[in-house]
């Protein structure tokens, strides 16, 4: 009888690798998970060089492609570095050994959760098309330093600030939203948060435990995990070139959407679907979370009104809670976002914030208030929009040979800081990403963002943290690899 599980293989590494051919998980995913666990636990220390793909494949008795896909995924996550002439080695900073109590010291009921579903840091070396990276080098350092000097001119107070945030910053952020997004938000309905995930966690806590929540598929996996960790049932809803498909939405208490620049496809929801979603919320007595994470950046395409602006309710707002963040428009270092909610929900949100962390850092709030009221945030947005527009044009131009040759289609390029390169059949995105990783070009795919259905064959290309020269070089490599892979498959 043939064994379905390979015996543990040491392959000159301080851990045994075992692949189960009866598992529903693909072999390359099993291998990647075991190597990742070895790194994050500290068993594989920083700088350890892995065996070559041929040797590893021979030891595990799998095809070389299985190993190549696994190593490429870990390289894209920043767990491994591809070093020319050396091979794959454990990246510095990827191994985070954690000293835990012994199993006997832990409660019997405790189950260690899996790692948070967030992107790893930038790989060392090469070109990483990691989405969500801001252009912080454009920051006016003199103005930034002056804002913090103003905030620290006097000693901080001895008490906690308001849970919803300090009033001057709420006023400044509301005015910024009116200028940048055309959203007339009452400062009294605006709460300063520690970012969009923090805000979503507060909202999730308002729902009865076990509530049904509609969520875009593919979608923002960290936000999905926040809802799951809050004890809710997440219902994936498909997305097409016009955003969330609203034709047959099932009943739920909440829908979470990214209508301005869908994450990760980059498409935007048209006005008819926005209105249909609002009508769905009215019919089912539901709420909507509108995550507008990078709505300030549009390149030629006219802005659509936020869902919140279309939401007609009584007493200061209806059914939409608007999430914004300064992470993309300024820097994630300040860990500051904002939430615009219906007035009736503010007391419950403030209570949740008090119990979560008693409110946002007051010194940071003071500094941001000085920075915004001095006009520096608006000037920074204008600089960043010009810069990102140059990046977007460079990416589109360098990838034109693929789009013109009908090997791929570039989507989501009209806005934001990332785009999706949809590959034509029979191209496989994972295989293309693996081949690129071997050349030091790191891209994502839609697989990690997709649940219950087969992921579309597309590369996720974040360009916000790259120079124009890096974008052009990386895109040229993408063109070469896609062409080579297409030729191999059709020959």
From TrEMBL:
Q: Which domain of life is it from?
A: Bacteria
Chain ranges passing through the membrane: none
Q: Which InterPro entries match?
A: Aminotransferase_I/II_large (IPR004839), HTH_trans_reg/aminotransferase (IPR051446), PyrdxlP-dep_Trfase (IPR015424), PyrdxlP-dep_Trfase_major (IPR015421), Tscrpt_reg_HTH_GntR (IPR000524), WH-like_DNA-bd_sf (IPR036388), WH_DNA-bd_sf (IPR036390)
- Record-level Gene Ontology MF annotations: DNA binding; DNA-binding transcription factor activity; pyridoxal phosphate binding
**Alphabetic keyword roster:** DNA-binding, Pyridoxal phosphate, Transcription, Transcription regulation
Query: What Gene3D superfamilies does the record tag this protein with?
Result: Type I PLP-dependent aspartate aminotransferase-like (Major domain) (3.40.640.10), Winged helix-like DNA-binding domain superfamily/Winged helix DNA-binding domain (1.10.10.10)
Give start and end of each HTH gntR-type domain.
25-93
Q: Which PANTHER family does this one have? A: HTH-TYPE TRANSCRIPTIONAL REGULATORY PROTEIN GABR (PTHR46577)
Q: Which family does it belong to?
A: In the C-terminal section; belongs to the class-I pyridoxal-phosphate-dependent aminotransferase family.
- What is the name attached to this protein's record? GntR family transcriptional regulator
Organism per entry: Deinococcus puniceus
Origin organism lineage: Bacteria, Thermotogati, Deinococcota, Deinococci, Deinococcales
């Amino acid at each position: 009888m043939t064994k379905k599980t390979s015996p543990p293989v040491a392959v000159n590494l301080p851990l045994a690798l075992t692949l189960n051919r009866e598992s529903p998980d693909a072999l390359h995913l099993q291998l990647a998970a075991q190597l990742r666990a070895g790194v994050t636990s500290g068993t594989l220390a920083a700088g350890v060089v892995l065996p070559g793909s041929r040797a590893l494949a021979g030891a595990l008795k799998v095809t070389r492609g299985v190993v190549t896909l696994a190593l490429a995924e870990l390289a894209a996550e920043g767990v491994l570095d591809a070093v020319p002439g050396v091979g794959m080695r454990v990246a510095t900073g990827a191994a985070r050994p954690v000293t835990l109590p012994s199993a006997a010291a832990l409660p019997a009921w405790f189950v260690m959760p899996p790692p948070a579903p967030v992107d790893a840091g930038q790989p060392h070396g090469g070109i990483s098309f990691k989405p969500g990276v801001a252009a912080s080098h454009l920051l006016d350092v003199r103005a930034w330093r002056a804002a913090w000097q103003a905030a620290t001119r006097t000693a901080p107070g001895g008490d906690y600030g308001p849970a919803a945030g300090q009033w001057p910053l709420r006023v400044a952020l509301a005015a910024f939203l009116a200028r940048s997004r055309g959203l007339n938000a009452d400062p009294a309905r605006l709460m300063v948060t520690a970012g969009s995930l923090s805000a979503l966690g507060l909202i999730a806590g308002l729902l009865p435990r076990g509530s049904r929540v509609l969520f875009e598929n593919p979608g923002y996996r960290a936000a999905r995990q926040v809802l799951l960790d809050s004890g809710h049932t997440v219902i994936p809803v498909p997305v097409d070139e016009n955003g969330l498909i609203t034709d047959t939405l099932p009943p739920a208490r909440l829908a979470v959407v990214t209508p301005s620049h869908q994450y990760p496809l980059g498409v935007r929801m048209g006005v008819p679907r926005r209105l249909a979603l609002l009508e769905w919320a009215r019919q089912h007595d539901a709420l909507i979370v509108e995550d507008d994470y990078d709505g300030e950046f549009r390149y030629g395409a006219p802005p659509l009104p936020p869902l919140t602006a279309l939401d007609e309710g009584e007493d200061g707002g209806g059914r939409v809670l608007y999430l914004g963040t300064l992470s993309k428009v300024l820097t994630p270092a300040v860990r500051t976002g904002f939430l615009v909610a219906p007035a009736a929900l503010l007391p419950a949100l403030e209570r949740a914030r008090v119990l979560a962390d008693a409110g946002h850092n007051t010194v940071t709030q003071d500094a941001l208030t000085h920075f915004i009221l001095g006009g520096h945030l608006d000037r920074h947005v204008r600089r960043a929009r010009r810069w990102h527009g140059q990046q977007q044009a460079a990416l589109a131009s360098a990838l034109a040979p693929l789009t013109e040759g009908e090997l791929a289609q570039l989507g989501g390029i009209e806005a934001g800081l990332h785009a999706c390169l949809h590959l034509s059949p029979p191209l496989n995105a994972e295989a293309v990403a693996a081949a690129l990783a071997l050349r030091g070009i790191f891209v994502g795919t839609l697989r990690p963002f997709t649940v219950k259905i087969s992921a579309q064959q597309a590369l996720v290309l974040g360009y916000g943290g790259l120079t124009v020269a890096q974008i052009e070089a990386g895109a040229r490599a993408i063109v070469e690899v896609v062409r080579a892979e297409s030729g191999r498959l059709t020959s």
